[in-house]
Amino acid sequence: NTLAIPVPGSTGQLIGITFRTLLSTAELSTLNERLKAQGSRPISKYVNTRGYHAKEGLTGLSRAIHSRRKILVEGYLDGHFVNLKAEQAGLSEPIVALGTCRISEEQIKSLELTRTEEVVLALDAEDAAGLKGTIEAVEKLREVPGLKIYIAPLSDYAEAPGQKVDPDALVCSR
Q: Does the pLDDT of residue 142 top 70, yes or no?
């Protein structure tokens, strides 16, 4: 019940693998309660290979290396799905996944090294972590000289109030 997701670095070579459980939140919670009762360690939603940390990479950056405008999404799955669906829809904007809702100094340095001029934040700002991540990303990215920052208001595309809109669902609907 686990999906392995290869994480390429800025040059496209593999820097790690992240594993994501395919269990629902409720199933994972139930399993972890059983594991704790047995004295075992709980299972995380995501697990990375030894030596790799999510803050180090920008999945998809190798495809976006020559683009001056990059769209940042949170998760690896968002990044992979959005890129596939964007290509199918004929969109040429490169999608880069942070691997988390928080941008790191290492990731900002990668954006600078690839001469990024514009960043579009398409984080899951409907939830508390995504909103906090968006605010923190704007604060950190404002320190990059000449960088233009845009926020994609995903909630504007919700069909009902409070409905969560993932970037891949947005691309599919457009």
A: yes
More confident of the two residues 40 and 94: 40
Among positive and negative, which fits the CA dihedral 154, 65, 55, 45?
A: positive
Side-chain half-sphere of 156: how many Cα atoms within 13 Å?
4
What is the spatial distance between Cα 101 and Cα 84, in angstroms, rounded to a whole number? 21
Residue 21 CA to residue 163 CA, distance in Å, equals: 23
| Closest to 21 measured CA to CA, from 44, 50, 53 | 44
Please report the pLDDT score of residue 76 as a whole number. 67
Asked if pLDDT for residue 75 goes beyond 60, the answer is yes
162: left (phi over 0), alpha (psi -120 to 50) or beta: left
Query: Alpha helix (H) ranges present in the chain?
Result: 25-37, 61-64, 76-88, 105-113, 128-141, 167-173
83's CB contacts (< 8 A; 6+ apart) are 60, 63, 94, 95
Contacts with 13 (C-beta within 8 Å, 6 or more apart), sequence order: none
CB atoms within 10 A of CB 150: 13
Q: Could you read off the pLDDT of 96-132 as tens digits, one per residue?
A: 777 677 888 888 888 888 889 999 888 776 677 778 8
Judging by beta carbons within 10 Å of its beta carbon (0-12, 13-18, 19+), is residue 101 exposed, middle or buried? buried
